[in-house]
Amino acid sequence: FIRGKRTKSQASSSTLRAVTQMSVLSANRKQPKVLKLSKEDIVRHITVDSAWKLYQQKKKELLRKNLKDRYDSILDAANDLKSLYPKLYESSITNVNKTKSKSPNRFPIELRVPTDFPPNQIWNYEY
Residue 114: inside a domain, yes or no? Predict the structure, then answer.
């Protein structure tokens, strides 16, 4: 017996009714069986489960802290730019139209030199 797409052209209504009843009766076989665990195994399961939840919680907290640090760094950089070059800061804050219009204050991304690999020195600090 292979279950497939049900169409009236393939079988009669009585056959379709029988197939429907069989699929309803076999629905409990699709559910996972309840594990019969001893008390020691239940304690082990609860311990492992709580340790896993604690690990996931710490992982999420570390990610949240990392994102907050990144955001704070962006704000610090924006404040430095505002104090050093107010005109450049204002041009970086203004919204660019959603259309293809080019803003004279922004560097076009199309002018980036295409490369196969990243450079050996990512950032030149003495520039």
Answer: no
